[in-house]
């Protein structure tokens, strides 16, 4: 009796300690997300920067470090070690779930290296094809004035238009404006 009791006393704390550590290790090695590359890419919102945001990390069922590109049915690649990658024919058969909205974040700009100040939502159709990318932020309509000013239709502030820049954050009301 005493022996059984002391066994419980010893083993219980050990189990409690090891469980969270095991879960943490599994998450690290299995990868928690896939990468998503919108097509066309989402532009950087930083003032003056016309770069594009890349490396969106999205969580969904069955993620295994696949790299998805909008408009393509199968993964373009897998961001795993060469040894642990799926063979090409197996990779070609992987699909996203149909009619899914996959939230992705932590993208960075390829010019200023800044992180995206918003998440995106990657929307699939009934075949699992990624067909739409939505910016998850307060969005505002805009108007181009005299070809070189962009006006926010939420607060009516205006700022200089920069050629090739597609996403702006309104300096007055913080809404995201897409051109
Ligand atoms: Zn940038
Ligand atoms: Zn505004």
How would you summarize the topology of this molecule?
Layout: H1 2-30, E1 34-37, E2 42-43, E3 52-54, E4 56-58, E5 66-69, E6 77-78, H2 88-91, E7 101-105, E8 108-109, E9 119-124, E10 130-136, E11 139-140, E12 142-145, E13 149-152, E14 158-160, E15 167-169, E16 176-178
Parallel strand pairs: 1-5, 11-16
Antiparallel strand pairs: 1-4, 2-3, 3-8, 4-7, 5-6, 7-9, 9-10, 12-13, 13-14, 15-16
The protein binds zinc ion (2 copies).
Low-confidence stretches: 1-30
Backbone shape: elongated
Instruction: Please work out how many helical segments DSSP would assign.
Output: 2
**What portion of the residues fall into strands of 2 or more residues?**
25-35%
The hetero molecules present are: zinc ion
**Would you tell me the structural class of the helices and strands?**
alpha+beta
Major sheet summary line: 7 strands, mixed
**Count of distinct structural domains:** 2
Defining traits:
binds zinc ion, elongated, alpha+beta, disordered N terminus, 179 residues, three-stranded antiparallel β-sheet, 32% strand
Describe this structure in words.
The protein has a seven-stranded mixed sheet with strand order 6-5-1-4-7-9-10, with no helix packed on it. It has two helices and 16 strands. By secondary structure, it is an alpha+beta fold. The model is unreliable at 1-30 (pLDDT under 50). It has helices at 2-30, 88-91; strands spanning 34-37, 42-43, 52-54, 56-58, 66-69, 77-78, 101-105, 108-109, 119-124, 130-136, 139-140, 142-145, 149-152, 158-160, 167-169, 176-178. It folds into two domains: 31-137, no CATH class; 138-179, no CATH class. One zinc ion binds at residues 140, 152, 154-155, 157, 170, 172-173, 175.
